[in-house]
Amino acid sequence: MPAERTVFQSMSQKHVVSLAPNASIWDAACAMTAANCGSVLVMEPPDKLLGIVTERDLMTRVLAKARNPETTRVSEVMTPNPQCVAPETRVSDAVVIMIERGFRHLPIVGPGAKVMGVFSVRDALPREIGNAMSLAEFNEQVNDALG
């Protein structure tokens, strides 16, 4: 069996899709559509990660609340200080974090707090998701036994 891929190796988007905090939700939707991705990072220039806005955020925090996408700022609906992973994180370990915390996107941050992209659950292969499910189940059993 080949060595498991890292989140950086498996990333389908090799460039960082980001916006400044004062960008509108409209800008975020356009950026995600243009890049064909499900999230945009909210960054303070030059490279400080403030938060993340996902497709789900657009649905639940904007559309479902009837907020105007042209006047609502990404900083108002982003998830601030998102959980991040290192580029060398194994895909199954990243997917375990996603399963346990209910995320679909994890920013990848390398040495010197350099943002390298976003790992999406869509980037994982079925085998890696299977490994993660087994790991998550194991973690749950251990927690129940210790609980």
Q: How would you sum up this structure, described in words?
A:
The protein has 6 helices and 6 strands; from the N terminus they run αβαββααβαββα. It has 147 residues and is of the alpha+beta class. The protein has a single domain (7-146), classed as CBS-domain, CATH 3.10.580. Strands 1-2-3-4 form a 4-stranded mixed β-sheet. Strand 5 and strand 6 (114-120) form a beta hairpin. Helix 5 crosses helix 6.
In short:
The chain is of the alpha+beta class and 147 residues long.
List its salient traits.
two-stranded antiparallel sheet, 4-stranded mixed sheet, 20% strand, single chain, globular, 147 residues, alpha+beta, CBS-domain, 6 helices
